[in-house]
Backbone:
């Protein structure tokens, strides 16, 4: 849903990407470093209640998700392993954000702890459904909110709460939970429809062919015997 913002951020980050292209830094290095930054910020700061510094730091590292893809295209290093590594690191980052805030909620609000834990589990399922569907050759490219929206809503709510804005964290967590559940249902429905449309059609029952009538035996040729009458 936020894909329309990618061209804007691509232009904004182009000078940095071009500078990185002249260095030995590889896209995979950026992917791993960005994930490490998100995980460190979320797991070190969220559990102790430092929500604004944690959200701000994690948000900065989240933007590296755009750097690695752009850099890979410039350097020509894009490949299947890079895409695989990027998707794997995304799961670590997502789990760290919602796992870290769950630890804080367990000390302050048990209901929100359950909600944030649901966000974590449902977010992982949303991503898995799409990956599994694509592996089977099915379409699951639908959904109300995807990973960028989940992180944007979650980190915004967490960060604003750290600045003293009331109720915003609870609203953000409930919004991510509801949006993730809806997206999961949408993707499962889309996969079900696509699978049915691509299922091999059962052969239509064909009416048995009418057996040809047995050939009638040809009558034996009649031999006419010339009888001569003697006078």
Residues:
């Amino acid at each position: 849903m936020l894909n329309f913002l990618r061209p804007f951020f691509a232009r904004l980050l182009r000078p940095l990407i071009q500078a990185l292209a002249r260095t030995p830094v590889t896209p995979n290095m950026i992917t791993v470093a960005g994930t490490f930054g998100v995980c460190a910020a979320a797991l070190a700061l969220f559990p102790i209640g430092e929500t604004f510094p944690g959200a701000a730091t994690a948000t900065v590292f989240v933007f590296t998700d755009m750097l690695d893809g752009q850099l890979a295209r410039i350097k020509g290093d894009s490949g299947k392993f890079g895409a695989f590594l990027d998707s794997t690191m995304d799961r670590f980052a997502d789990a760290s954000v919602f796992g870290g805030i769950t630890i804080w909620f367990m000390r302050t609000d048990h209901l929100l702890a359950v909600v944030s834990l649901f966000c974590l589990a449902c977010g992982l399922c949303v991503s898995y459904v799409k990956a599994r569907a694509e592996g089977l050759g099915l379409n699951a490219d639908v959904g109300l909110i995807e990973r960028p929206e989940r992180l944007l809503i979650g980190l915004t709510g967490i960060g604003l709460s750290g600045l003293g804005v009331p109720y915003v964290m609870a609203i953000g967590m409930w919004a991510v939970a509801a949006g993730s559940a809806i997206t999961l249902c949408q993707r499962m429905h889309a996969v079900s429809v696509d699978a049915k449309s691509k299922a091999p059609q059962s052969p239509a029952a064909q009416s048995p062919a009418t057996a040809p009538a047995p050939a009638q035996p040809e009558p034996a040729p009649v031999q006419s015997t010339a009888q001569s009458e003697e006078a």
About this structure: Residues 205-211, 222-231 have pLDDT under 50 and may be disordered.
